[in-house]
Design a protein that fits this description.
The chain has a domain of 58 residues: Roll (SH3 type barrels). The longest helix is centred in the N-terminal third of the chain and has 4 residues. Strands 4-3-2-1-5 form a five-stranded antiparallel beta sheet, with no helix packed on it. The chain is 4% helix and 32% strand. It is globular, with a radius of gyration of 14 Å. The protein starts with 26 loop residues before the first helix and ends with a strand. The chain has one helix and five strands. By secondary structure, it is mostly beta strands.
Length: 95
């Protein structure tokens, strides 16, 4: 038998799928965030670069720093704090 791959996008065929009428927009790629902004991680499947790991989908965190084109987002899971590096097209400002 062939061994199953354990790649980054494994088991995400349904999780990371756009709707049929989803249109490409430039705005999410150009969005600027400030430090201490609250954001929700919402991966954009059309952009593979800077995508957070799929288990962080839908979680809310705080922007701690900027790293190149990406942002460092601190997320609390239980009692532990995790830092996720993600590009702006995968982040949505929480109101």
């Amino acid at each position: 038998m062939v061994r199953a791959t354990m790649g980054f996008r494994r088991s995400t065929r349904r999780k990371l799928k756009k709707t049929l009428r989803h249109k490409f927009k430039v705005t999410p790629y150009l969005t600027e965030f400030k430090i201490k902004d609250r954001v929700t991680l919402k991966p954009n499947p059309s952009s593979h670069k800077g995508m957070p790991f799929p288990k962080f989908k839908g979680l809310t965190g705080v922007i701690k720093a900027r790293r190149g084109d990406a942002y460092v987002v601190q997320i609390r899971i239980g009692n532990s704090l995790k830092e996720v590096i993600s590009r702006p097209e995968h982040l949505v400002l929480k109101k």
